[in-house]
Automatic annotation (TrEMBL):
Transmembrane segments: none
Species in which this protein is naturally found: Sphingobium olei
A UniProt-annotated Pfam family: HTH_1
Keywords, ordered alphabetically: DNA-binding, Transcription, Transcription regulation
Superkingdom, natural source: Bacteria
Protein name listed in UniProt: Hydrogen peroxide-inducible genes activator
UniProt entry tagged with the keyword Signal: no
Domain HTH lysR-type as annotated: residue spans: 6-63
Family assignment from sequence similarity: Belongs to the LysR transcriptional regulatory family.
Family annotation (PROSITE patterns): HTH_LYSR
Length: 309
């Protein structure tokens, strides 16, 4: 066995540098000075006898071996965190720290109902939230940056465990007078592909909307430019097109004070599944399932939100 083993702190510094690509930003994320982080990585390189990072004035570039060690470091840090999680799971559930990523098409609509309930029912829980796109959230989960993710399925999540909370129906939102006599349901064939506005790449709602329509011309011609649902709503309200939004957004009042009408999509894939996901075989599985139950109850507590499936 080697006389030297990297410390967890050194591995954290290395992973942070890879994530941010900048010594100053990496140091800030680790709550240390830039000189401390740089010295820690240099010590790691010196003691294992290899160069992991090529440093220039403008660029931080990892060597091929550096990239391999970063991948391994992610797993080591995740395993170390799970050692603590095993101990925490043996005590009172949903106490201490819990890091959760939430996608932008859920966070502003469900969290206002969830957080007061958690503060009331679980005052010892310290919930740290990150809002990020689905792919970024899954990467954060895989690398151990978060413990669980609140997202919408279907989406290629890899090897995770999950619990479905409820189904969230998709609606077409359009200027109230276009058409003047809107139908009760919107068939995907009725959507003008030249007027469809969708979220930009990285948001799973874009894929769910296109899947609900199941039209190759929409996939090819839809305008993907919205950075948020609120942006899309403003564009529709100004007559620039139509878009698709989830029921939970409507229930939370996103159409209030607009001249927009919305009708449900009539198709086989007209809804998305809201789910909580976590790493497979996590020692905190019971906690996550308990949290899923609280999330479901928070959704059901307000009659304007979708009911649990």
């Amino acid at each position: 066995m080697s006389n030297y083993l990297p410390t967890l702190k050194q591995l954290q510094y290395l992973v942070a540098l890879k994530q941010h690509g900048h010594f100053g930003k990496a140091a800030d994320s680790c709550f240390v000075t830039q000189s401390t982080l740089s010295a820690g990585i240099r010590e790691l390189e010196s003691l294992i006898g290899v160069t992991l990072v090529e440093r220039t004035r403008r660029v931080v570039r990892f060597t091929a071996l550096g990239d391999r060690i970063v991948d391994k470091a992610h797993r080591v840090l995740r395993e170390a965190e799970e050692l603590t999680a095993i101990a925490e799971a043996s005590g009172k559930p949903l106490t201490g720290e819990l890091r959760m990523s939430v996608i932008p098409t859920i966070a502003p609509f469900l969290l206002p109902r969830l957080l007061p309930r958690l503060r009331s029912d679980r005052p010892e829980l310290k919930l740290y939230l990150r809002e990020e796109t689905t792919q970024a959230a899954i990467e954060s989960l895989r690398h151990g940056a978060v413990d669980c993710v609140l997202l919408a399925l279907p989406f290629p999540t890899g090897e995770v465990d999950s619990e479905i909370l409820f189904q969230d129906r998709l609606y077409v939102a359009f200027p109230r007078d276009e058409p003047s006599d809107p139908p009760e349901w919107v068939d995907p064939d009725m959507i003008d592909e030249s007027k469809l506005l969708l979220l930009e790449d990285g948001h799973c709602l874009k894929d769910h909307a296109l899947a609900a329509c199941n039209r190759t011309d929409l996939r090819a011609n839809a305008t993907m430019m919205g950075t948020s649902l609120h942006t899309l709503i403003q564009m529709v309200d100004n007559g620039l097109g139509v878009t698709m939004i989830p029921e939970m957004a409507i229930a939370s009042g996103i159409l209030d004070h607009t001249s927009i009408a919305a009708r449900p999509v009539q198709s086989e894939r007209s809804s998305r599944d809201i789910a909580l996901v976590w790493r497979r075989n996590s020692p905190r599985e019971k906690e996550f399932r308990l949290l899923a139950g609280i999330l479901r109850e928070a959704a059901e507590a307000n009659g304007r939100l979708p009911q649990a499936a």
